[in-house]
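G.,

No rush on this.
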Amino acid sequence: MVMILADILPIRAVRYSKDLTGALNLVTTPPYDVITPEQQQFFYQRHPHNIIRLELPKAFPTDNEVDNRYTRAAATYKAWLDAGVLVRDTDPSVYIYRQQFSIGDNQHTRTGIVCGVRALPYAKGDVLPHEETLPKAKTDRLMLLRSCQANFSSIFGLFNDPDGRISKMIGDKCATAPPAVSFTTEQDGICHQLWPVTEQDWITSLQQAFLSLTIYIADGHHRYETAVQYAAEMGEKGLHGYDITMMTLVALQDPGLLVLPTHRLVHNLPHFQPEFLLTKISDHFIIREVQLPSQPCRDVALDRVLTDMQAAENPTLAMYAGSSTLHLLSLKPGVQVADFCPPSRSKAWTDLDVTLLHTMILEMHLGIGTTQRANETNLTYTRDTGLALARVDDNTAQLAFFLNPTKVSQVIDVSSAGDKMPQKSTYFYPKLVTGLTINPLG
């Protein structure tokens, strides 16, 4: 998580013309970092103007310095602007963005604002990151930013609104008129609504309310860090206006703010034997076996075990190595994770379940440390529990580790302590839709 002293600004967003594209559910996507290659192909085929061609363009073996995925995205972006497929709003606006969705039988609503936030270096902007970033992902986003000079997707930020003042301002404004945009993405059933607000008095009141607040970046660390780097590059050339990055800001108290777990898949370990690992970790963990039934009941049974795991008295993880056997790993009483961590780490960091996994299993016993995680040689991530089991069963992965969700309060505590969580420690659900608003730079 990144913490920023709030400096929010209205933006003149570029948006799709309904007259030329039709339903927005045909041209929008999830954020780039959760799109699989199969989904990328699906979105390419879904509509000729789908945002995938800008946010996550295809690469080809023939790509070179002058013709590659980034230059093609820039050419496509310009062509769509010239053709009126994309149109820039006339007036600077703050955009109220509401998502309505369900988890199981429960209905949820999450509301935020889309605006510009000044991207400043951590040292200058009192910015505290909470999550490690991957060099490859930052290089990719920087190349896209240099070529297209626009934010195609929004960073997701949080702010503290204990008295509900800002949430009331937003809710009252929504109540005055129907949304200008409303559509449902059928792949996940999420309804997306947008209210552009141009009234200067309301925007000024909102800015004043944010002056004493802190913004915490929940999703989008790679995009934020590349936004800072790109602004610096353009500033060195004497070019200004490139330091306003697009964010969607949601109150920490919003009842629709949900965090789901991101699970780990381990692969490419030479001479790996799960029995040997279980023996090694038994010094620090109580190990309990749970036999999973066959399908169609297996996924339901796993979800039930993982729900019960959240209520465990001691920190608990689940490990799957195949053969329908799930191993619940509970930290033994008296064992302190902090004893195995660098002394510089905060209590907020050592209390995380992901710290327990990374420090006392991945690093200590499997040799998967910071370098291996950065190079993505032995660890991948998924939120799909059924897929995690299947990847182990078909030998694509050697192990699956299932984690409890990180609490929002833990995220804030780690950020405030100046620490960084490992990559993919949080999964804020639902993801912000990509293609609803675009922020042109310069």
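When you get to it, here's the other one too:
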Amino acid sequence: MNIDLDLLRKKHILFFSIMVLLILTFFIAIMMHGYIGSFSRYIADDYCTSGKLATLGFWPAQSFWYNNWTGRVSFTFFVSIFELFDSNIIKYLPTIFIFMILISGYFLFYSIIKNFQIINRRILSLLISVGIIFTTFFTLPNIGQNLYWMTGAVTYLFPINFVFFLFGLIILFRKKFPFQHWIANLLVGLFIFFLAFVGSGFSEVLSVLQIVLLCMIILVLSIKQRFLSIKNLWMVALIGSIIGLVIMVSAPGNEIRLRQLLPNQGLLIFLYNSFRYFFKYLVLWFVKNINIIWPISSLLILMTYFVRKHFYFGKEILFNQVIKFSFMIISGLLILIFVCFLPSTWVTAQAPETRVLIFPTFLLVFLINFVSIIIGLFFIEIVTINENHKKTLSLIIGFYILYFLVAVPIFEARQVYLQRPEAVKYAISWEEREFQIKEKILSGETDLIVMMIPINILGLEDINTNSTHWINICAAEYYGVDSISAE
């Protein structure tokens, strides 16, 4: 018995060390995006929201955007919160957003793993969180506009925190309410409503996605009759999400914004185009990112196998039940990925902007991780390993992990670092222009002609030669001058 405990302790230390090493490597790779993001500066829409905040004030600015441009009330509220700080805050936002998504991701995955009899659930939850964030960030079609750009990050990345906390809380309280007193439980319900409502107010895509996901969960629970008293939390979340969507689509400003878009071409063409964009992105994402997907998947398969064999002490895993559950989850994820393309296709009659694809990318990462875990769970039944070959297999796995660390996170982090010269050049040019603008304003000029910044890693428009261009108008309002143009 002592020998077995000794062996288990050694395996536990080894596995814990491997997980810590992976977490640190993933984290360093992710933080490389935070470093490159530190060279971000105001650009494009940033000038518009900041300009209105400066000229109108906080609450009048919220009213202006709702009535004149967009019903995304959560976006305009939070972007105004960030803009209340000095403009230098934009340098730190990418890093802040990274830490936030890691924390909310950890909370969600711990809420799920907490229900399983596994050793080291907390460190395992952290590993899954950093692994999913790493895979998502390094397979996004437009990480610059999803993370480095303040407007894009607040619209598409930041609200995912609300979704993670929302579902994490409901899963955490899935069996019973946390408190004895009804007032405390009422506050929990109100907080869940708040998370759902706010998360639903950032963008039409996320709002529809959140509502469809909640409806799917409620439908499955109804069929399986597993509601009990906790069913109210799912319904509260659904009601909050629907109210958020209604408020967003009811905004008078939407009509003004929609006039600039192509008219919808009818239901059949809309569905056909949505499926075409969905299928195209699905295929291209796998093809473009296979160098990341296959190592992540195989590593997860091996780690799941190891956890199940040595550190899982729960009920016996029944193959037939897991297959049915897996089919349901995989089908649900594919439906949700398809749903991501519906709102943009309906509103714009075109393929979604690359920054909108953060939502299907997250879901695709969840999909490959889930499939890998399922394969890992049944690896024992699929492959029989001879006792004499276990040491050899352990060496192979050890070398594979070292290869993985070098070939995937470290390599990808280096690729991001190679953008540094361009990012630094842009930041220096922006600072020089900012100094030039302030000097001209101090000298009493109101019609400014400033230096042109030719490049930026975000691929966004900046102040240009046309003083009547929308960005120039927004920048003029932001700086408090009559006009501004670049040459």
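The chain has two domains: 2-418, 423-486. The CA atoms of residues 53 and 59 lie 9 Å apart.

Enjoy the weekend,
O.
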